[in-house]
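Consider the record:
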Amino acid sequence: MFKLKQGNVTVSRAGIYFIYSQVQYYDENDFTGHSIMVDGEPFVSCTECPVNDYRKYSTCYIGGVTRLEKNAQVGLKANYRTKIRLASDTSYFGFIKLV
């Protein structure tokens, strides 16, 4: 069981977790990207630079395995000012307890 508060999920059981996220951007900025945050610190991050002026959509997937303690806070942070396309099949976040 998890608690969601202010965009962060509180971990109820310590263990080894696989944490993942994907975000689709629609933007003309030079850079897009986001980070998975654990207790306010970046765990994994991505940065993408559009290929040319005509490419406005981009997608960035990141994930990794780490130990999370009980009551750890996990969430996402946009690293640049950008437009995010919120759709369940293109932008998502989650984690799975492995051990």
